[in-house]
Amino acid sequence: MDVKGKIVVVTGAASGIGRAAALKFAAEGAAGVVAADLNPDGLIPVVNATGGIAVTCDVSKEENIRDLVRTAEARYGRVDVYFSNAGIISRGGPEAPDEVWERNWKIHVMAHVWAARAVVEPMLARGGGYFLVTASAAGLLNIVESASYGVTKHGAVAFAEWLAIAYGRRGLRVSCLCPQLVRTAMMSNEESSAGIDGVVSAEQVADEIVKVMREEHFLILPHPQVIEYLRAKTNNYDRWIGGMQKLFARYSGG
Question: Which residue among the candidates 82, 130, 149, 167 is catalytic per the annotation?
Fold first, then answer.
């Protein structure tokens, strides 16, 4: 899909990948960019740069997502591309509070489900559309610093796969973004296992998103090494677990 002439919704658009993607979509000729985030002040420069509209939205609440889509449709008449991008990260394992697990679940899994409820059928009725999910390399490989992040990002990948399986032949294009470490506000000053292959900029990620959308592939991998790690994982699961145990000892003090 070419973004030119399309109406695009981006969540988590006030900073990081979402901001860079919104700017890139506008530069590629999107007919309208709807920038959504919990931080309304952060959306002002994005809207000024894209000529789009800002919507304050908490993606952990389905009604907020419904309102976001209704606002986009009221302004532009349709949604052609929905980029479900907002995310969080909290360190820890099973000892993390239930509230942390619940918030990760809502933002990394249910937000995609709620968005799909709102936009997929209207897209199909118009002949198709594009649904983008930000997961993470953690969704394919896991991450040693955060159980709640790794588990829910696996769920994000699984849901994106399901959408592609269920609706791909009816015109829905689905891509799943799975980078390692990206230079954003979520990036910790501490050394991280996600940075083992280097850090890419949010702008580099946005460039890769647009490139893969044109090619209509499922996985978007700004760090190409990820696919090799995935192949190694499926080729010898026990050996892969052993390697991850070494990473855990290095980065989590285990």
Answer: 149
User: How much is the pTM?
Assistant: 0.94
| Catalytic annotation present for 149 | yes
CATH class of domain segment(s) 7-224: alpha beta
- Which residue(s) pair with 132 in the sheet? 83, 175
Q: What is the pLDDT along the chain (254 residues), one digit of tens a residue?
A: 999 999 999 999 999 999 999 999 999 999 999 999 999 999 999 999 999 999 999 999 999 999 999 999 999 999 999 999 999 999 999 999 999 999 999 999 999 999 999 999 999 999 999 999 999 999 999 999 999 999 999 999 999 999 999 999 999 999 999 999 998 766 555 566 666 778 999 999 999 999 999 999 999 999 999 999 999 999 999 999 999 999 898 877 55
Alpha carbon of residue 9 to chain centroid: 12
Task: Parse the chain into domains and list their residue ranges.
Answer: 7-224
Q: What DSSP letter does each residue of the chain carry, written as one string?
A: ---TT-EEEEESTTSHHHHHHHHHHHHTT-SEEEEEES-HHHHHHHHHHHS-EEEE--TTSHHHHHHHHHHHHHHHS--SEEEE-------BSTTS-HHHHHHHHIIIIIHHHHHHHHHHHHHHHTT-EEEEEE--THHHH--SSBHHHHHHHHHHHHHHHHHHHHHGGGTEEEEEE--S-EESTT--SS--GGGTT--EEHHHHHHHHHHHHHHT-SEE-SSTHHHHHHHHHHH-HHHHHHHHHHHHHHHS--
